[in-house]
Design a protein that fits this description.
Blueprint lengths: L1 H32 L1 H25 L2 E2 L2 E2 L2 H37 L3 H6 L7 H12 L3 H12 L1 H20 L2 H9 L2 H42 L5 H11 L5 H18 L2 H27 L7 H15 L1 H19 L5 H7 L8 H16 L1
Helix pairs in contact: 2-3, 2-7, 2-14, 3-6, 3-7, 3-10, 8-9, 9-10, 9-12, 9-14, 9-16, 10-11, 11-12, 13-14, 14-15
Length: 372
């Protein structure tokens, strides 16, 4: 009997593991196939969470002793988001178009310029590098990027629509939470978890925006000092790429050095430009950024790399931008689900995920700040 029972339990475990693998494969398939829609929805949720405090602040204001209604505050926030998104998308496309157009004009002389960097190793090495670079169809890659950049405006419109619907559903959120759990204590706990996710993601994005803005401005000043024609475009692209953890700063540093060398053709000034840009990225990314973040996120560095690799493989470049906010959400949720506590320990930096007491203190601090 015991042998039959053990065999039955073994089959049940195998069946459970098989179902989990199938479920993961189905979810992964849906993530890839519906990535444009899901990326737009993820961005809309992040923007909605960013403006939730703004809506509450507008709703608390008075105009001639009349409090601003919640629906009017939501409309004002939606108009602000729509205008900002369209403006940012237009600037991004304009600068990206400038960089791509200039890149195409430099495509013919770029291989010889880069190959000359290896001239000190001998003519054979320089010739081999030049042959390898000539075999790469740079113009084809550039045109592919340009065609994908056209989806930015379509995604912007879709994000605005999603945000509008989220604002419309916002007033019923508390009622839906209470009815869903059918238990006021559990509903209140779920609200606290949602508030924790929103404010931690908002804090991360705020710090990242400030650091990226400082980095982009410094790169622009340095590139202008070296007489780089694309100084403004490089500063803007550095600001954007710095939202991609770890890899973004490396790519932007290499991009600045490559553009500088292609434009000037001087190895000495290019090396100096590379060193200065690298120092800026190192100081802002490894000193200022961690100092401002403090213990607010407590994310594992290895977990960030894994999240970056996974979402980059699934959603491409947009997935890299969204990898850390998604990881923050997973960390907070797993911290308060008993069965997923082990996952939260792996995702946290010190193996100390958020507990219930810390969640209560965090929400009390937020509520006290709102009422003050």
């Amino acid at each position: 009997m015991s042998g039959l029972r053990d065999q039955t339990e073994y089959r049940a475990q195998v069946r459970t593991i098989a179902l989990m693998i199938i479920a993961f494969a189905v979810v992964l398939f849906l993530l890839v196939q519906a990535r444009f829609l899901l990326i737009s929805l993820a961005v809309a949720i992040i923007l909605f969470s960013l403006t939730s405090d703004v809506i509450r602040w507008i709703a608390r204001q008075r105009i001639w002793r009349v409090r601003v209604p919640n629906w009017l505050a939501s409309i004002a926030a939606l108009l602000l988001i729509s205008t900002s998104l369209l403006l940012v998308s237009s600037i991004l496309l304009a600068q990206l178009n400038t960089v791509l157009t200039t890149t195409l004009s430099y495509a013919e002389r770029a291989p010889s310029a880069v190959a000359s960097l290896f001239s000190w190793l001998g003519e054979d090495v320089e010739r081999a590098v030049l042959t390898s670079l000539n075999s790469v169809e740079l113009s084809g890659y550039v045109r592919t990027i340009a065609s994908q950049a056209g989806n930015v405006m379509q995604g912007t419109v879709l994000v605005i629509l999603f945000v509008g619907f989220l604002f419309a559903e916002r007033i019923w959120f508390d009622v839906k939470m209470s009815n869903f759990f059918n238990n006021e204590a559990q509903a209140e706990r779920a609200r606290k978890i949602v508030i924790s996710i929103i404010h931690r993601v908002n804090y991360y994005l705020l710090v990242k925006t400030v650091v990226s803005l400082i980095t982009g401005a410094m790169v622009y000043v340095v590139a202008s000092f070296f007489g780089i024609e694309l100084a403004l475009a490089l500063g803007i692209l550095t600001f954007i790429l710095n939202y991609i953890p770890n890899i973004g700063s490396i790519v932007s540093t290499g991009m600045v050095a490559l553009v500088g060398f292609v434009e000037t053709g001087e190895p000495t000034s290019t090396a100096l430009l590379f060193v200065i840009t690298g120092i800026i990225q190192f100081m802002n990314g490894n000193v200022i950024d961690p100092w401002l973040m403090g213990r607010a996120l407590r994310l594992s560095s290895f977990g960030i790399i894994m999240s970056l690799a996974f979402w980059g493989a699934v959603w491409g470049i947009p997935g890299m931008f969204l990898s850390v906010p998604i990881m923050v959400m997973m960390l907070v949720i797993c911290s308060h689900v008993p069965g997923l506590r082990g996952v939260a320990i792996l995702l946290s930096r010190e193996g100390l995920p958020e507990d219930e007491r810390e969640l209560d203190r965090f929400n009390d601090h937020i509520e006290g700040r709102k009422t003050s």
